[in-house]
Amino acid sequence: MVSTNLLTRIIRIPTRFLGVMILILSFVGVYSLRNSLTDCMVAAGFGVFGLVLKRLNLPVVPIVLGMVLGGIMEVKLRSAMARVTTPFDMIDRPIAFLLFLAILGVIALHIRTVIREHRAGYADEDHDLHDSQQR
Amino acid sequence: MDTLLAGAELLMRWDVVAALMIGSIGGVIIGAIPGVGPAVAIAILLPATFSLEPIVGLIMLLGIYGSSMYGGALPAVLVNTPGTAVNALTTYDGYPMTKRGEARRALSLAYSASFWGGIFGVLCLIFLSPVLAVIAPMFGSREIFLAALLGIILVVLAHRGQIFAAGMLAMFGIFLQTIGLDAITYTRRYTFDMTWLASGVDLIVVVLGLFALSQAFVLLVEPDSSPKAQPLSGAMTSGFREVARHKRVATASSGIGVLMGMIPGVGEFTAQFLSYTYAQKTSKTPDDFGNGAPEGLIASEAANNAVPAAAMIPLLALGIPGEALTAMMLSVFYVHNVIPGPQLFQNQLD
């Protein structure tokens, strides 16, 4: 709390300066990982991709989590498959079964809310459609 | 208990303390800068932490993660711009208080509520760890596969209205991960016989590109906008007392934060939103919300500060990250050959 006055000054750092700082630090970081310039190019490519996603208001988090969880899923699935003969063996242990139920439950809940929202919003949507046609 | 003491011993080492200090002070500063969130900061710092000892690097990142939400409240209260995305709801009640000339009261409230939420989250992590150590060995490869699948589904479903796009992006992420040598039989996949693709696409490179570089581009293409801070005014009454008066709101919000933190893919924003709605619904004066109600400020700040510690629970117990920041931390673990998951609790309890 003592440093609050100092911090209020930090809020006013110009964004251009910040942008350049981030740019420099990130490239140094990427290069130092494996000393490879290709990594820098790849990172720059993903930077542009991220900018496009941000402009389209799309989230970037699913990509990162897809990468991490996808890797875990692949390894675990392949080592589990070695011990599984029928698909039901996948869920024959209590925790596995619970998790399977949780997955089904989450999807079912989601479908239910979608249907409910659809019903509730049906009148509105109809109205909107009408509006846009008139225009 | 032994492990708890071992943890305390760790806190006596000078490099750990230094990392914690740098991390948390840096986190507050980074959180306070609008446009640079903890994700950007951690992405930039990731390569640097690889040369440090794992515990030092991790503690620094954790410090940033925890304290950036705290710093993010500052611009939210003072200039109506959330420092990080998760402080968005703090602006609803924080800024009206500033306009009323109670900026200091709002800030001390925000700090105390953050403190409350953070401590609550950490306590939950400490008390849940023994339970986790019991449950975690029951997770074999099929359970972890299913948990990871559940995580992906939750993350995709969390993006309401964009589920199709989020699903496609998650698929794209899974595809990216398959490039290069596969982990079991070492066949080359999607390399097109090009050497630079054989080693795969590194997670950190992608994270740096998607979080840090894209944010840099956004900052560079958009016109300069430096918000004007209003001068501080108002009484510097102790926010702790006020938070203690709204104990119920603060504790319930922290609880919501912990729960939401544990579920993969839900994260701070939902936690904050839920606890804000909860506080509003149970409040005696719901109309004050949005016009500078202390409960609203407490609810949003306590909830988002309880999340970081709770988000560590699935990461440590199962090795399954629930959001981008814990995914980044997972890569720190991997680089140092510490594989979080069931084995972590059995082999090394530190």
Brief summary:
Chain A is mainly α. Helix content of chain A is 81%, strand content 0%. The longest helix of chain A has 41 residues, at 94-134.
Fold topology:
The complex is a heterodimer of chains A (135) and B (350).
Chain A lengths: L3 H8 L3 H20 L2 H19 L5 H21 L12 H41 L1
Helix pairs in contact in A: 2-3
Chain B lengths: L1 H9 L3 H19 L5 H12 L4 H26 L10 H10 L3 H33 L5 H18 L4 H16 L1 E2 L6 E2 L5 H4 L4 H19 L17 H7 L1 H16 L4 H16 L11 H25 L5 H12 L6 H6 L3
Antiparallel strand pairs in B: 1-2
Helix pairs in contact in B: 2-4, 3-4, 3-10, 3-15, 4-5, 4-6, 4-14, 4-15, 5-6, 5-14, 6-11, 6-12, 6-14, 7-8, 12-13, 12-14, 13-14
Description:
- The complex is a heterodimer of chains A (135) and B (350).
- Chain A is built from five helices and no strands.
- Chain A is mainly α.
- The C terminus of chain A is likely disordered.
- Chain B has 350 residues and is mostly helical.
- Chain B has a two-stranded antiparallel ribbon with strand order 1-2.
- The N and C termini of chain B lie close together (12 Å).
- At the A-B interface, helix 1, helix 2, helix 3, helix 4 and helix 5 of A face helix 2, helix 3, helix 4, helix 6 and helix 7 of B.
